[in-house]
Amino acid sequence: MEGCRLCPRNCGADRSAGQTGVCKTAGENGVYAARAALHMWEEPCISGEKGSGAVFFSGCPLRCVYCQNYHIAHAESGRWISVERLSEIFLELQAKEAANINLVTPTHYTPEIIRAVEMARQQGLCIPIVYNCSGYEKVETLQTLKGIVDIYLTDFKYMDSEAAARYSRAADYPEVAKAALEEMVRQTGEAVFDDTGMMKKGVIVRHLLLPGHLKNARAVVDYVYRTYGNRVYLSLMNQYTPLPHVRDWPELNRRVTKREYERLIDHAISIGVEHGFIQEGETAEESFIPAFDGEGL
């Protein structure tokens, strides 16, 4: 945490001394988290019937302007817990029959998470660990997770650097995400599922379609499929919800149309995508955003 270089921002904040980094959090022997509970709203092979054991960490190195978890991304809510308590939470979620431990926005707490997973495994943790991230990851940080993480559930938000700069202040996002995804696939190899269809190892690449950004979405699908084929699963999402904080970006202040999403799905099918997930029905609802009220901490 001294001179922090965990994420591609490389801000150098001395987080161990209480200085906040770009991620909006400091940190010394603990993590700032907002919720730990069974979560039903991930892909079917992640949530299953009983839920994914999701731990939502506060703060975020990327902080997109349209973030659906805006309040925790800006570290406006949460509570400090020790590494020891985090390991206990993992075991408590396993006892509730969680399908996995789902680490949501974990990048800036990677060292603490590694220690917590190792401690919990010594106490009997045996379900898969899911690294649920923005895709804006440093290869060097990901390499420390080899043997810790079983499943990478990663966004791939942009192939358009101008959009990445406008909405996430990260013009380098496309190149960073490409390198990160390569490391994720290198670590996990081919996807593995159990006899009930639950993922035990592998990579799922998510893309949230933004209103008016079909060209960018197609480019993401093209890159991921043409680079990795069916070694990774694509998850194409239409659940974008325009929340009040996007008022300064009027082009984002609407939902994705049914036609926009259908055109993206048609494109994916036309180029040969077979392994993936799509969303049906009305998903753009604030009810899909959980309450970050400290449950389970």
Automatic annotation (TrEMBL):
Pfam families: Radical_SAM. Its cofactor is [4Fe-4S] cluster. Residues 56-184 form the Radical SAM core domain. Keywords: 4Fe-4S, Iron, Iron-sulfur, Metal-binding, Oxidoreductase, S-adenosyl-L-methionine. Gene3D superfamilies: Aldolase class I (3.20.20.70). Belongs to the organic radical-activating enzymes family. [4Fe-4S] cluster binds at residues 60, 64, 67. Binds 1 [4Fe-4S] cluster. The cluster is coordinated with 3 cysteines and an exchangeable S-adenosyl-L-methionine. One of its GO terms (molecular function) is oxidoreductase activity. InterPro entries: Aldolase_TIM, MJ0674-like, Pyrv-formate_lyase-activ_prd, Radical_activat_CS, rSAM, rSAM_sf. The keyword Iron applies. This is Radical SAM protein.
